[in-house]
Amino acid sequence: MTRSWSFLLAQRAVRGCARGVSFALLFLSMLAPSAISAQDAAIGRITGRVIDVETGQGIAGVGVQIVGTTLGAMTALDGRYTIIRVPAGTTTLQVRRIGYAAKTVTGVLVPAGSALELDITMETAKAELSAVTVSASSERGSVSAALDAQRKSVNIVNAITSEQIAKSPDGDAAQAIQRVSGVSVQDGKYVFVRGLGERYTQASLNGARIPSPEPERRVVPLDLFPSGLLQSITTAKTFTPDLSGDFSGALVNIQTREFPARRSFTLSQSVGLNANVIGADLPAAVTTTRDLFALGADRRRVPAFVRSFGSFDVPPTQDETNFMVNSFRNRWSPRTESGTGNTSTSASLGGTSTLFGTRLGYLFSGTYGMSQDAQVDQVRALALAQDAINEIDRFEGTTGRQSAQWGGLMNVSAFLGSTSRITLNSTYNRTMDNDARRESGLSENLGLPFDINRLRYVERSVQSSQLSGEHELGRHRMEWAGTLSGVTRAEPDRSEIVYIQDQNGGPSFWFSGAIEGAVRTFSALTEDSYEGKASYQYTMGDPGRQLKLKAGGLYRFTDRTADNFVYQLTASRLSQEDLALRPEQIFDGRFTQEGMNFFTVRPFGTVGGSYAAEDRLVAGFAMADWQVSDRIQIIGGARYESSDPVITAQPSVGATIVSNPSFSDLLPSLALTYRMTDRQALRFSGSRTLARPEYRELAPIQYREVIGFDNVIGNENLVRTLITNMDARWEFYPSAAEVLSLSVFAKEFTNPIERVYLGTSGTRVITFQNAQGASNLGVELETRTSLGRLAEQLNAFTVFTNATVMRSDIQLDATQASVTRDDRPMIGQAPYVVNAGLTWSPGSGTTSATLLFNRVGERITDAGEIPLPDVKELPRNVVDVSLRFPFVYGLSARFDAKNLLDAPFRVEQGPVTREAYRFGRVYSLGMTWQR
Amino acid sequence: MSLFTRLRAGLLLGATVTLVACGDDDDNNGPTVPPTPTTPPAGVSVTGVSSTSVRVSWTAATGATRYVVQRAPATGDFAQLSDTVTGTQYLDAGLQPGTPYRYRVAAVRAAGTSDFSTVADGSTLAPGRGSATITANIATSRTLFADTTYTLSGFIQVLSGATLTIEPGTKIIGDFDVPGSSLFITRGARIVANGTAQNPIVFTSERAVGQRQPGDWGGLIIVGNAPINRTGQVIIEGTGTGSANPPQVYSGGNNPTDNSGSLRYVRVEFAGFATATDAELNSFTFAAVGSGTQMEYLEALAGLDDHFEWFGGTADAKYLVSYESGDDHFDMSEGFSGRLQYLVGYQSTVLPPRPAAGSPSSDPQGIENDGCAGAGCTDGQNSAPLTVPVVANFTLIGTGPGVVPAGGGYGMMIRRGTGGYYVNGIVADWPNAAIAIRDAATNTRITEGNLLISNILQMNNNAVFQTPNGTSVFGLDTTANNIRSAAGTTASVFLGLTQPNFDWTPSATSPAREGGLATFPAALATKAGTFVTGTAYRGAANPSGPKWWQGWTTYARN
């Protein structure tokens, strides 16, 4: 396999990241001065795009000419053009192309020594329509309407653009996407659409699937992507055959920033604080410089000596055990530190230039951020059915967390004539969370009061390199892309230590003889994915009555390995005084000197957590997009997908188990759009999609979950879920910036996969089962309107709301129904999601204020084991505010306040609070300098 | 199948139906004497199965309803073994090793008997030759013979309808190289393992004496069809870890008198492998086992998890010994209502388990009884049927301080709504307390008359009752319930408390010789029936009775 050089660069960044960063910075600093060097007093440039007013897509091969001169240019594939050496001053442009009405734009003001950005729309030629003349200023509104992806799409799509993100307080993609109708975000990272579980949402980056960095779930933590790198986030809620078939709720596509038309350099810096953190005494783990660059996992590896004993079939001698104890990092207790603030820096450079006669567009961007947060008033407990449902194992405490994030992207695009565009896009993002938790409570099973300390460090990375091309020649259009992507997740060296509170008021002492007394966990996951896809489109008919036939295919190879090693450290014969020492004293070597005989080190059910998966996915599709009339458009077709995963799991008992299910499905879809007027449309869509089981869920091994501490067993007999989707939507656009839409949708699930508890004679076990079916029905309402409709003075105010109300019913077979209630919604399905906002944006466009509100209805996180009720996450009201205003010397400022109500996150099971904590209010102030 | 073949098959079927119809008519028309089989059984053959048994088999004779089997030594006369054999084989056991025998078979139809077949010769196997590995599930009834050492390799399941018979003195080992190898008597199957005091049946480790460790293999698991108090699908912990170890469901039973066979003089040693983290198998697991099952003289030693665990069910048992457990000695839960008498549980240390086999428990106890816990306890800890066992004449001796983790170390942990009758016991040397009545739901059992703890001798425990520590922990009126303390060393109470020469008989001066509840109160008497009787003494041994543990128990740590 040949790897592109950018991939090698990214690989290099993984291995020697510090070098990678400095390399990138050097690159930026080299280009930055040249960005501002081209000076010429008398002439300027005009750049921009010519787009189809109907479809919003760029038109290639349009002649753009300065009237009365020989100056001009031909638009490239995406409609982009640049005319250089234009005399400064007011001038007139004319655009022409066969099949479109010619257009003249007057009053174009070209600045001296600088560039003007001007986008122009064109309309298909009709009998009654001849040449059009418009002014440059009026052209802007037409462009903004044409670019409205939501309005132009045939399927049901919601989009957030970089402008909208810039207006919100959102720091990353996870926060930004919450503004899309029907979207909710869990844990600040994981996306749910229309209240469906994460299983039914796919995420892609520039059209290529992002692998999940979590060992147990299929999720993409969208907080990996800083908002500064985003061009748009589109959420397709209905399926067309050219999209990946394994989604039902939505396909979230993150598009990284396209290069700006003119050379620009942006530097942003912000500082912030969390009100629960700043100045508060919080548990903290030691954070090193390497940790601050999310490179600390290397220093936390399993000690090689311990690892060399495998599953301890040959047990270590006492001397070897003593050496092992010493070889673990002697870190167990959180320190108490006063919380500090947050900071974030980003820089980007973009522009176009010509290299060997080829026009290149480029964008380089880098970002670094560091933050502290805390979960205060933290409670976790379990429910037990006694005489009534009672709370047991209630632990109260605090978690402090230090996080760092950095990443960058490099996007280089080349236009080859007016028929081709080649793009190379590489991104790399890396995050680190360093947690320290203290908690105290009473264990029901053991009847003892405990103090439990935990240190946990998690590092994640996502990288993607994509080479893609578009070629258009007359009626033929070809698209292709090759993508190498990878994720890593390392949770190296989690430590947990349990002390027993002395009932007579003495010091707590180590729970030394118990397997849970001192545990170290090392887990790692890597997944690499190689994807190639290509499609061909042939267009028949004239603009406005076109029939587009499209066919294509995709092949993806995925390779995943997940490892999990857990060790327990126990001791006997230590005196009560010794056990009352701090853990760092007990483990400092004083009890492991030669000849001493206190400690035992053993695997804690070690090997069962490791598995590997290889998956080959082949897909092909054919579809037709037919503009039947001015008003009616139909897209129909089918996609075939065949997945052939091989999962190799190492159980704790016996030989390796290989599961090799195979899923092949034909996924038809049909979508119809009826544009009743220019401002109203009706859309209908029906499709079949699927959701495949996760690799981990298919591995028939039992092991202790890294995250939830429950024993989990896979089910090799799982089948994929088939989903029949029906959507209908009415849309009304009163003006370019306003929208009112109403949708109804129905989804019928066959064999949805549910995570359920298995009744056993001992330890709780979680497994995955296909329920018989489920049905979801929902209504979605979206409005965005200017308050100027009420009174002229309120013109600057825009309100928007989107609300989704759903009803879900699961159908279980008799065995499943005997373990959990069967008159409940699907797990993870919320009954409603509401987003609302108010924006104040007076004329200039540089000052704005936004108030945002979000609330998600109560949803089941775990189906309760009879007779316990279901475990439910309660709704919480979230209010965010952000302000944008210009400052001095080309600086603009932003102030953001998030989570202003600081409503607690709560998960309840009947009368029992299973989990609760508060995040705290977060304030930040930022400056951006651009030129 | 071609059209022609189908036609022919159809015609034959039609002819058969016609013939059967004719036969019915004949019955009505008067007696018919069936013809004597003109030919004796053919193809008689003799195969050595073990050093003491051979299998005689033959092909069926037309019209035969049963067969006569006769045996003769190499020289000498034939003697009749059986004239009631209905199948086409006969297992002849109790023979001399490596010895030739002769067999002949005749067929019987109604009153007529055929001539004897030609004589077939065969020998038993040479002595000591017997060793066999069991790798497949046992779907049809099978006997394991005493001269053969059997290795269980994998999760061996005796399937519904089959009976596994084990001869006295048979040794069965768990394959060390296939970790967790176990024997499952599944629901609907039976085990008949009747050893003797001289020749107990031993399930043990494959490793050599001195190298054996808890968790060397899985354990003996019996699943019956008696009720439990959990609804829904409940499986045995440690099963369902893969296709070779399918989930063993034990909920949903409805036959309190279900019969899973019988166990007499059986030892289970060095069992308890954890097939998943924190999911060890017990030495003896009795899941929903019914009262039709006979159990007495059982010993578990050096297991990694509980030694005897009953999940619901109604099975009775007597004469149980538990030595050096990795968790609890006796564990009853989920509506167990059987009756147990004469129990010994002894703990002096925590044995290091087989590496990677699992871990000793954080809370080992003498008795750990739960009412209902987990999914399917429809009425919480009041779910019916309540856990109400009779436990009489028990001797539970703990480690003393400093050996087991702080969470465990109770002689009797009674919790989560458990009831029952616990009488005539000795509870000594437990590092936390003799007795824990751990929560309100359990205390309710006392007030409603479903929990009786009385006539207990407690000594050298850290406390009589668990001390409150924030949860609701209850005590008892020690005087009214005859919970008496004694001074002196625990060793002074018994005739022998030195390893490995235990004699559980009360010493001449032992307070255990008396203080027992000889006459049961009405509720207990009703439940005890004739299976459990009151005694004047306390503990597992009658001062003047037989030393029931002698000969078949052993006390090995490795």
Oligomer: heterodimer
Separation of the first and last Cα atoms of chain B:
63 Å
Proportion of residues in β-strands of chain B: 35-45%
Q: How many whole angstroms does the radius of gyration of chain B measure?
A: 28 Å
Shape of chain B: elongated
User: Most extensive chain contact?
Assistant: A-B, 70 and 75 residues
Structural class of chain B: mainly beta
Based on Cα principal axes, name the global outline of chain A.
globular
**Helical segment tally of chain B?**
3
Radius of gyration of chain A: 29 Å
How would you characterize the overall build of this protein?
The complex is a heterodimer of chains A (931) and B (558). By secondary structure, chain A is mainly beta. Among the domains of chain A are: 1-37 and 272-547 and 558-608, no CATH class; 40-147, Sandwich (Immunoglobulin-like), CATH 2.60.40; 154-261, Beta Complex (Ferric Hydroxamate Uptake Protein, Chain A, domain 1), CATH 2.170.130.10. Chain A is built from 13 helices and 52 strands. The radius of gyration of chain A is 29 Å and the shape is globular. Chain B has 558 residues and is mainly β. The radius of gyration of chain B is 28 Å and the shape is elongated. The chains are: A mainly beta (931), B mainly beta (558). Chains A and B meet through strand 29, strand 36 and strand 40 of A and strand 19, strand 21 and helix 2 of B. Strand 40 (753-760) of chain A pairs parallel with strand 19 of chain B.
Give the structure's gist in a few sentences:
The complex is a heterodimer of chains A (931) and B (558). With 931 residues, chain A is mainly beta.
Highlighted features:
heterodimer, A: 931 residues, mainly beta, Immunoglobulin-like, Ferric Hydroxamate Uptake Protein, Chain A, domain 1, 22-stranded antiparallel barrel, five-stranded mixed beta sheet, 52 strands, 10% helix, disordered N terminus, B: 558 residues, 2 domains, 15-stranded parallel beta sheet, nine-stranded parallel beta sheet, 7% helix
